[in-house]
Amino acid sequence: MPHIVFEKPNNLSFPLQSDNIEFVCEAKSPYESKILIKYDNMEFLLSKKNRPSKTNPNLQILKADKPTRPSKAVVIKKTLQEFVDRYQVTPVFSNIQNLKDYTKKGSLYLKEIEYFIKDFKTDKKIFVEIGFGSGRHLLYQAKQNPDKLIIGLEIHTPSIEQVLRQIELQNIENVLVLDYDARLFLEFLDSNSIEKIFVHFPVPWEKKPHRRVYSKEFVDEAIRVLSIDGSLELRSDSKEYFDFALSILTDLSKASIHIDINKDLQISSKYEDRWKKQGKNIYDLVLTNQIDSLNKEQLDDFSFTKHTAFKIIDKLPPKPIVKGDFFVHFRDIYIIDDSSYLLEVTFGDFNKPLTKYIFIDQNITRYIQGEPLATKANLKAHRLIDEFINND
Questions:
Q1: Residue 218 belongs to some domain of the structure
Q2: Which residues of 307-318 are buried (b: 16+ CB within 10 A; e: fewer)?
Q3: Is the domain of 241 the same as that of 344?
Q4: Straight-line distance from the first to the last Cα atom of the chain, in angstroms, rounded to the nearest whole number
Q5: Within 13 Å and on the Cβ side, how many CA atoms surround 251?
Q6: Same structural domain for residues 83 and 115?
Q7: What's the number of domains the chain is made of?
Q8: Over the chain (392 residues), what is each successive 10-residue block's mean pLDDT?
Q9: 46 near 40, Cβ under 8 Å?
């Protein structure tokens, strides 16, 4: 991680503009401070804290703040070098001398969640596979259905890299890969837009069932995004997981369910082959959708109520606020001046928590780096945050 260590300067003045980099302001807490940076069309924070040594108690370290850190290390390095030049500090340690950009070229088939929120469009029918592992089934479906778009979700980086290599080697063009939590991903899809959802051999999580992909909320969201006669297909070697999923499906008000045991598919994973040799049963549970769902709710109002009170330091709860399906944790508050603050908050879904900074002054309250992803949990958390900020 690029950083510099230097002797504490007497005074840092803000704002300071230098070519395409602006040092906007410094927000301080008892333990560290955050320096707001505008770099071309992006903004992020630098974190500055004391780093005393045995020989020098006045040393400080400056590096990129983790929640807002730019993806390209060269941006951080250039900003730190500009800080050194413009504020005329003398580093006692620095690893920013080499400013070459070693950012790897991304795959055309690997997408970020923002792509599916802002830019995703297709005329093809869509299959979604959740937790594709080695990718055998994912790639098989892509080759057998060239007229379909196959979206694969996986959080295991080596599996993602392996599948991306195979996509290139086999010249497969109808696959998109995403590293994201499937339980939240479905929220961003249009209603009745998916033909099939595959959940093959998910982690059983016997001791932590709350971490399972399957839940009442997941199934409800799957039904919303599935087209009429579209299917949600679970395949598992875990009888406990199968029973758990079946209990959810049989509790629905309307459902068409099909069960198979030890059904042979035209393609199987290496783990499935191993389990069959061990004599383990393989369970298939298929839900066929028969509901024409309404369009999804638009979750786009992350604005803040116009406020009149600014002294919020003493009224924020010190412990996380936990609700049924979301939480809010006010982590720290950084003071810019008498009426300007930077508030650090972690919030949203328990499975995919988000840390954001909120800039507050007399004229505006806004999120640093733009609004949160528009999930149901994030919107509920935002409304609670707004309530606390504006609770005179």
A1: yes
A2: beeeebeeebee
A3: no
A4: 41
A5: 11
A6: no
A7: 3
A8: 91 89 95 95 95 93 95 91 93 82 73 91 96 94 97 94 95 96 90 96 89 92 95 95 95 92 85 82 95 80 74 76 95 91 94 93 90 92 90 62
A9: no
* Residue 327 and residue 352 share a domain: yes
Dmax (CA) of the chain: 73
Q: Is residue 297 part of a domain?
A: no
Query: Token pair of 53, please?
Result: 């040594």
Do residues 234 and 328 share a domain? no
| Same-domain status, 171 and 80 | no
Sheet holding 175-178, edge to edge: 110-111, 175-178, 148-153, 125-130, 194-200, 226-236, 283-288, 256-261
Q: What range does the domain containing 179 cover? A: 110-288
| Domain contains 302 | no
Q: How far is CA 312 from CA 307, 327, 335, in A?
A: 11, 19, 11
| CA–CA distance, 4 with 76 (Å, rounded to integer) | 11
Residue type, 192: N
Torsion of CA 155, 157, 163, 169, to 10 degrees: 160
* Region of residue 269 (left: phi > 0; alpha: psi -120 to 50; beta: else): beta
243 and 153, same domain (yes or no)? yes
The pTM of the full predicted model, rounded to 2 decimals, is 0.82
Residue 137 shares a structural domain with residue 75 = no
**Token pair 């703040």 in the structure block, residue:** 65
Torsion-angle region of 389 (φ positive above 0: left; ψ -120 to 50: alpha; else: beta): alpha
